[in-house]
Amino acid sequence: MTNLALKRPVQHWALTLGTLALLAATDLTTGGLHSRLFAHSDLGGIPPGLSEEYFTGGRAGTVFSTTSRCLELPAPAVSANPELLKKFNDGEIIFEAMYVTDPKSKFGGLGPVYLNNACRNCHPNYGRARRVEDFNTQFGNGYTVFVHTPDGKLVDGYVFMLQTMAVPPYVPTAKNVKITWNNFVDEHGNKYADGTPYNLGKAIEGTLIYPTADIVEPLLPLPDNYKVSLEATIGIFGSGLIDAIRDEDIIAEFNRQQAQPGPVKGMHGKWVEEPDGGKRLGRFTWHNTRATINNGPGGNGVWNVTNINRADRPKLFASQQWIDKQGELGLDVTPLASHQPVEMSAEEFDSFLVWHRGLAVPAARDLHKPEVKRGKELFFVAGCTSCHKPSWVTGDYPLLPAFAKQKIWPYTDLLLHDMGEINHGVSKTFRTPPLWARGLMDNAVDHTDMFHDLRARNFEEAILWHFGEGAESREMFRKMPAQDRAALVEFLKAI
Amino acid sequence: MKSGKNNKTDGKKLLQRPMVRIAGLVALAGVVCGAMLLPKSAAVQAYLTQRKIDAVIADYADKVVLHTLERVVAKNEALNGAVAQLQANPTDAGVEEAAKAWRAARAQWQPIQSFAFGPAAFYDFDKQVASWPIDRPMIEHSIAQIAAGTLAIDSGLLRRKINSTQRGFFTAEHLLFRDGKPRKAAAIRPAELLYLKAVTQAIVEESLDFQASWAGSANLPPAAAARLKAAQLPERPSYAAEFAHPGAPGSRYFSRSVVLQEMFQESHTVVEDVCPLIEQWLGSTDPRDSESQDSRNAASDLVNLLQGVENAYLGGVEGNRGRAMAELVAAKDEVIDRRIRIALADVRYRINAVGDPYGEPAADHELKVRIAAASCWKLANKFAAAIVPVCMDPATEPWAAYVPSTAL
Predict the structure, then answer these.
(1) Which of B72, B134, B165 to mutate to test the interface with A (most CBs of A within 10 A)?
(2) Domain at B68-241: CATH code
(3) What is the pTM assigned to this prediction?
């Protein structure tokens, strides 16, 4: 029932607006209390007297929802504008669409070589991918696969999103990816300083795991020392607000870290040449390789995962080596080498970008609770904020002007950090990921899998996988009394 | 006439009478107690409202969700059985029986949209069981491989290795129907029947998984649990148990309000989805503008979506209803409740009155479509009007995630 599902989130938001509109009528039936609840309700329903930290996405980018639909709502900046809301609605259709190979069909044009057939499949319910054992898992598996040499260079012919699907008669780059989950025991025997095992009282008590991967039936040659590394998708919400952060502010944070004593020395992303000829600072992907939504996770992801082509992405996303190999197999490569038909119009793409940048961040929760307050203190004491910079103020953002000058709370410095050899994948450095709304993953996606390859099964493990520049904070956490460790986790769930 | 002094004396004497004194004390106590109880009446009222809401939520989980899923599995089993019969004995009558079972299964599936939050949203059960559009060239490719003996198809392979756009209700529909009618048995190739059987088997397994996600694998009948295990589907805890206990330790639902938001919002959005679809599907003479293009089941699809909303609103299917969302609405505004009930019936009547959009064009067809759509929007508006009073009632603790309840 795709049609039905496509429109649902917007209508949830429409309902929220309707909710506000009906407030006056509600006063009559509920004693007038709701006018207090919506005292600051020009952009959305807001409880009274909240501190600014509750507004994780700023006033224009925060919604107050904890339902299973909480990650898919449009920001107040969008819902306040009927024209934007219409585009948001249309753009969401693309995110939800199940693409098919039949070019004559609705949502046609999938392939001829691809990774998955819908954005949503890798971003389940608008959230983070979940840990899987079977790479073929269609719904919820958001792994991208890198085939590379130990120095992080991709093996010739293997694009950075390994394509394991192809439309016959073409043959994919690999038939499958074999994922193996391995046990890991740290130098402390997976125990805290007080002697209690990690994951105390859970079925997974005393364990940590991490994945290794290999490709099945590779089509192209591989060097002897090739490696296969996994990286998973993260949530999409709040991307527009990250997009709105000024390059110079990220550079300022980089300079601050370089000047400060201690091991934390984040590196900024590369300068990326944008289609308009200007250069912007990388801030998206696990390695800060993309600078803007338009030319990054939004603009590219919708093309290179599915190979749905558009006028500004007319070429097939595939390596020349893969195309040549199809020729060697006796297949007609003419359709592969030439410009592809336009399968997504400029108007559709524009709507898709409005949707992408307009997704709201759910408000923080429970910040008033003593345990959460204690956890916040410990978050600072343990030095977590060295990388997980709590807040930013966005710059001007002509693409969505209401997102300008918003104080937001993503808890990331947007810099790359060395996370230690055990986390070494295609690279040893990773962008500090935003922490906002992690506590709602379970509400929206039914899991708490985290880290670049989803090796952390919960918040506790996510902290314990901090090595390299994060090792000191990890050790402080490991030495905390159980009550403080719990408080720190509660804080992470709250933000 | 007695003097004033005498009146005072009489009053003293009156107060000295035991019965009068007792009555006076009782009255005084009544006033004092009444004054003491007055502030508490709001708390008592909130308590009573909460108990009522708890009963509604419990019956929603039991009589709406779990009961619907039980019926879904049963109808899908019947479809799978009819296809097995067809495969064993491919006759025109067999195709007609399977096509009939398909329509029944499809009708039973549509009501799940009113609870498409939670597990359905986490695991995309609708995109598994009813993926749309379907990938016709790829389906044909697999069938050709089966015919050539290079592909051994089964439900596990379909679920684990092949995109959902090549299975589910619309793939089954494509193999059973053409131009709104069951296909002729002679036109269905043996490889198509093999593929169809794998498709309907996969539908059963995926709908069982959906049922398990709400009921909990441990609470399923042994035979169903065994089938899930055989299909290598995961063990699932009971979402219903968590859903029915908002605010309890471990529940993802901070308060009753959040649960009510899920229930009301999902039903409301189904209605809001149906309204434009009435014009899009029934206003077009091209079956390809609807989802069920081979069976031409569009009107039924819409009516059954609304049936799901009615089941949710009235607390279950007719004959097995419990405490209902309607009760909460009526407690706030009886008029809105009545109007919703009337509007639900009216939209379905109006949709049915449109008639076959693909048959002989009726002169008033467009008018009927517009009337049906307008009726639907009226229902949507009435539904929206009911939501705030119920979901934002302070007794439901709408802001429990953000501020202590004592702060409001």
Answers:
(1) B165
(2) 1.20.1420.20
(3) 0.91
